[in-house]
Every structure is written in structure tokens, then in C-alpha cells.
């Protein structure tokens, strides 16, 4: 059993995918499983994933017809074998110590999930300069670095909603069969997953260390698509 299974749901992100994959395969936590779901990409994304899979036996590559984010994520969750599960969007990237740090705290505190603060970023295409915005999951310092029961902590429903800034104990996810909505073409299919984890978890934690790097300059991102249903900006 790997310590962390990392799911990367991929669709037409060849411009950003190498940066993402490099940040994952070079994690300081080496005992990881990397599950790449190619959701019918029509660009060079599949070839990039194949090249990494040929070099790294920790990578599990699934190539499927396009069916949407929720279906791809659920395939990844079904295939995951790790003690904990993480998610990385393929146009984002992560610092090399992210999963080592999160896993250590999760095991130390026997957590169902742990989430961390994160950065949103934009990168200038000409200068490569990066604009960073720090995002706090909660505006209250006292909410951080303590074990809490989400169902007994009403204010937790106001924490920033995202699924990728932390990790989840796989046995917890499987006990309650927590999965994503499967609505092809819809945006924000991870919102239901977020709500379920907070509804069923007994031991959660948020930490005030930013790790995850969330891209905001991808014009093809679902958050920029006005034709899709928008419930919450993740």
C-alpha cells in the first residue's frame, strides 16, 4: 500500500502538464501512487502521460473516452490503493514537500482529512513572472492546527471549498462511498465530494501553511466557461 495515491484527471492541458507531472513525480514522499486519468484528450496530453508512465512504475495510466471530470475522478478513486488520497488538477502544480508534510500530520493525528491554505497564481506568458494570491481556508486563526469534527462545527461550512488542497483517508472515503457527481460537461462536479467529506468526517484539520498552486490563467479552465453550471468558484 502506498502512503498517498494522487489522482490527476486530465483533459487537453498539454501546455501545463509537464510542470504538473514534474511536481508530482519528484515529491519528497517517494511512496506514492500516481493515477493519471486521460479523459479523451485531443491534444498531446496522452503522449506526455505515456512518457512519464514509461519511466515511473508508480504511475497508473487510464486512457478513456471523454466523459467528464466526475466520471474520471471516480475511476481514480476506485483504482486508488493508498492509505490517503490526494488530487492534483493537471494545470496546477505543487511544492515538492506537500504530500510528505500532509501525510505526516494526517497520520500523527489519525485524520479523516487534512486541508491546507493555498496560492492562486497567474504567470505572464512573456516574462514568466508569477502573480501570487494567498488564500486562507478560514479567516480565523483559531480554526487552524486543531482536530475538529465538521458535523459539530457549523462555521466549517464557510471554509473555502476545494478538494485538492489536502488529502483524505481512503478507508474513510470507502466506508461512506464518497464519490463525485457524474454529469458530463458540467462544472464544479467536486462540490458534492467536498460536502460529503465534511458531512461524514469525524476528525478533520486545516493548517495555515500554503502548498497547492492553483492556476488562474488557463483560458480553457471550467471556471472561465459561462455556459456551464456554476455553483461555487473552487
Characterization of this structure:
By secondary structure, the chain is α/β, with parallel strands linked by helices. Helix content is 26%, strand content 22%. The strands form 2 sheets. The protein has a 7-stranded mixed beta sheet, with helices on both faces. A 3-stranded mixed beta sheet has the order 7-6-10, with no helix packed on it. Helix 1 packs parallel to helix 2 (45-55). The longest helix is centred in the first third of the chain and has 12 residues, at 14-25. Mean pLDDT is 92; it is low at 222-234.
Topology, please?
Elements: E1 4-10, H1 14-25, E2 32-39, H2 45-55, E3 59-64, H3 69-79, E4 84-87, H4 98-108, E5 113-116, E6 118-123, E7 130-135, E8 166-169, H5 170-175, H6 191-200, E9 204-207, E10 213-215
Parallel strand pairs: 1-2, 1-4, 2-3, 5-9, 6-10
Antiparallel strand pairs: 4-8, 5-8, 6-7
Helix pairs in contact: 1-2
- Proportion of residues in helical segments: 25-40%
Number of helices: 6
- What's the overall geometry? globular
Strands of the widest sheet, in order across it, are: 3-2-1-4-8-5-9
Mean pLDDT: 92
Major sheet, described briefly?
7 strands, mixed
Between the first and last Cα atoms, what is the distance in angstroms?
A: 30 Å
SSE-based structural type: alpha/beta
Number of strands: 10
What's the order of the H and E elements?
A: EHEHEHEHEEEEHHEE
Low-confidence stretches: 222-234
